[in-house]
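request received
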Amino acid sequence: MRLGIKVAFYEVNQAGGVHGRRLELKTMDDSYETDYALHTTRRLIEKVGVFALIGAVGTPMTRVSSPLAHEAGVPFLAPFTGAEFLRDPGLHNVVNLRASYYQETEEMIARLTEDLGVSRVAVFYQDDSFGANGLEGVRRALELRGLEPVGAWDYQRNSGAVRQAASSLVELDPEAVVLIGTQDAVASTIKLVSRDIRPVFMTVSFVGGTALAKAVEGHGRGVYVTQVVPFPEDASLPVVADYHAALARYDPSEEPGFVSLEGYLAGRLAIFGLEACGRELSRECFMDSLNTTGVIDLDGFQLKFGPNDNQGSDSVFLTVVGADGEYRQVDRLDRQY
Amino acid sequence: MKLLRVPLSNLTPSLVGAAVMVAATGVACACATDQVEILSGVSDDHILFGQSAVFSGPA
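response:
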């Protein structure tokens, strides 16, 4: 996220900034822990004195940090999470860019049941609000089809302790496993489970893309990942072509990726809001421009907001890791992978 | 109602004093404004955004 936001800011700064002002990003490391996220967010608001927060990472972290922003009247833009609690239209300072985890898990279950006729779905999830949100999304999607998870096992965040859950999954031998976790935990579990059984593995956008494909070390073939931004290699979409060009100028050593593209889109959304306000900038104007414009077209990637809708995109894109270890976008599940 | 927006980096001691006076007393006529909003993160030449994120993880 940080890379993509910086690329978008770099791009606009190279062109003279927004109404003569350069955009800067101050990022603080919260180690994907709630206590640190509380501290870093408070510091950004009270000590650093930022205009707005952007691209905050993680469901448990945003659960503790977003109320601080709300109390301070600081815009909370494009968090990197599909958490349902942030989709509350009463949170007037929150603007979500991406589809929710409920939408990602609905797409997973739709594809599993319709494309492959799968009904025995197990869930592996992180033992916090992120995992709980994903598990609930799977439950709801299965319930719509008269089904329920055949099993669900959690692991402790940032612990790497996934062996027990992996062992239970092997014993159960489900047709599919939905994994709601970070890339390392998801990759470790896929590697462990794949030694004995080969269910359809599906995971959500939080794992990113490239990083997971590397982390599974040859066990990634056929792993499906739902994504919430377009395929980062597909430059036929003007905004993705812009992203490629700006990324190449900002840092030629960086490769396009799902997460940095999401960051770039977040940066572009922020720029849209700032440009709409002109030189007389206020937080109220910034939020109004994002919330009341209706459809915001970021060069081909459309976001739609409304009075009771603080989430811009509902799009979920299905991707799969092929035999070559590379991602490709697909429309449906196929056992050939 | 008049609104004076003062970018944080442009604050001078006298402006801070005026803001405190207005906030504390509500004396509007003395300085021709009845509200002072200090707009954090914005100056004449830059706008600052903040991000809390994990450096060695997914994003």
